[in-house]
Design a protein that fits this description.
InterPro entries: Amino_oxidase (IPR002937), CrtISO-like (IPR045892), FAD/NAD-bd_sf (IPR036188). By secondary structure, this protein is of the alpha/beta class. It contains 15 helices and 19 strands.
């Protein structure tokens, strides 16, 4: 029987898997429920303004980075310059600037804490050294957790003597390393780290797995990018490649049912169209699996996947604004974190990204589009009264925090709308607005993460809930694993 592949969901994970397989000569059909590609990295337009839906900061485009490797394999390299000044991190006590240059970054951070100069330098020296060793595994990109003999063998052959240096840190949190360096009680320093980690690891310094935290704190130095237009361009590159290589891409097709018949999978969309494939890759939120699969199939899923379906992650509240930048003293920087000191959620911390002047893909001359997002908890939205209250309160809380920094900001707004959890559910398919994947704590990361192998034959999963986790890099990596498992080849 000739093998065919059905990919469901044109988020970054699904597009990565589908485009790689199509390039390798596989017959691929990709279904996407939306009219836009990219999932949480897609876009929408309002009048003359274009807004990134969610993800905004480009990563993995450096030489050897995950996206760079994918795009080069597809013959569609995306060549742009990394940011030297990555972002501002505004905290109540100080504003830190994240610089690409490691030495400059550490020196400027340490300048805020001169009495801890030696401890902070030693801490970052360890972070950078650890991240360098971990990153050597990104070239072979072994699967975690390995679940087959082949995956265990590949992990074993990917290991080198230097990787033994990671073993003492394997079951440690960043909190333990901060204590080791005498920095655990340096509140302002920890808050700065927490602000970085919550956006990438979905948790703070107290609970995050150290090995992943080291990579997260170091990776911006490898390369962080402003992508003109937005990260939807990643999706468009892969979507175009899939079609160029004979793949079929169908938008506005919502999967309603997936059944197993012998060696075939039979999928039915909301229009009643039926698709047959020997191999299926699901790039959908794992919470949707019980609606797609029959109960007897759900019962056969691997336990970590079934357990994850019942778990909850963060939800989010997002503001989309267009501003008249001529009313500001200076144009908004492309990326800025703002922390009020009131915690990592509910507007106490939020990420603010803005189009750069001259990016007319996003806004006309003299204007900028702005995306502002904060973590939130699902229980704050579970009644109509709480829903409306949370949306109003969080909007005002974030605008007030920005006004303290930029007094004329509110007066510059020419368009504003919000993306509360139901909007994320309706337009991005995120059940209850749950986004970002699981917090990368010791009990959810590395060997405790969710495999791309579902437990059902020739059915694979990818996306931000699957190893190695959230963000476009994590989603793409899970898509690579799925494509490799289908093809039986390394591909990259």
């Amino acid at each position: 029987m000739a093998r065919t592949v059905l990919v469901v969901g044109a988020g970054i994970g699904g597009l990565t898997a589908g485009s790689l397989l199509a390039k390798a000569g596989w017959p691929v059909t990709l279904l996407e429920a939306s009219s836009e590609l990219g999932g949480c990295a897609s876009k929408f337009k309002r009048n003359h303004y274009l807004f990134p839906v969610g993800a905004t900061l480009g990563m993995g485009l450096e030489s050897g980075g995950i996206h760079d490797r994918v795009f080069r394999y597809l013959g569609k390299p995306l060549t742009i310059e990394p940011l030297e000044r990555v972002m501002e991190m505004v905290h109540p006590e100080a504003t830190f600037v994240f610089h690409k240059d490691r030495v400059r970054h550490v020196d400027e951070v340490t300048a805020h804490f001169p009495q801890h100069n030696d401890q902070i330098h030693a801490f970052y020296k360890e972070i950078f050294h650890t991240a360098t060793i971990v990153r050597t595994l990104m070239d072979p990109l072994p699967v975690l957790p390995p679940t087959t003999v082949k995956e265990w063998a590949f992990l074993t052959t990917s290991m080198r003597p230097k990787h033994l240096k990671l073993l003492p840190f394997f079951n440690q949190t960043l909190d333990q390393r901060l204590k080791k360096h005498g920095l655990a009680d340096l509140k302002e320093f920890r808050q700065m780290l927490d602000g970085l980690l919550i956006d990438s690891m979905q948790t703070g310094s107290e609970n995050v797995a150290y090995l992943l935290a080291a990579v997260a704190l170091d990776i911006y130095h490898e390369g962080a990018y402003y992508v003109p237009g937005g990260l939807y361009r990643f999706a468009e590159i892969m979507g175009d490649s899939l079609k160029d290589n004979g793949g079929v891409l169908k938008k506005r097709r919502t999967l309603e049912k997936l059944e197993q018949q012998g060696e075939q999978w039979i999928a039915t969309d909301h229009r009643g169209n039926v698709y047959e494939a020997t191999d299926v890759i699901l790039n959908v939120p794992i919470q949707q699996l019980p609606q797609i699969l029959a109960p007897e199939l759900v019962a056969k899923l691997k336990f970590p996947l079934r357990d994850g379906i019942a778990g909850e992650t963060w939800t989010t509240m997002t503001l989309y604004l267009a501003i008249d930048s001529t009313k500001l003293q200076e144009a908004l920087p492309p990326f800025r974190q703002i922390s009020t000191g009131d915690g990592l959620d509910a507007g106490g911390h939020f990420f603010m990204s803005s189009s750069v002047p001259g990016d007319e893909l996003r806004a006309p001359e003299g204007f900028q589009t702005v995306t502002i997002s904060t973590h939130s908890r699902i229980e704050d939205w579970n009644t109509q009264e709480k829903y409306e209250s949370s949306r109003t309160v969080l909007t005002e809380r974030m605008l007030q925090a920005i006004e303290k920094l930029i007094p004329e900001f509110r007066a510059s707004i020419v368009h504003m709308e919000s993306g509360a959890p139901k909007a994320w559910e309706r337009f991005a398919g995120r059940t209850n607005g749950l986004v970002g994947g699981f917090p990368q704590t010791l009990d959810a990361a590395l060997f405790h993460s969710i495999s791309h192998r579902s437990g059902l034959p020739n059915l694979y999963v990818c996306g931000d809930h699957i190893f190695p986790g959230g963000g476009t890099i994590g989603a793409a990596a899970s898509g690579i694993h799925a494509a490799r498992s289908v093809s039986g080849k390394r591909l990259l």
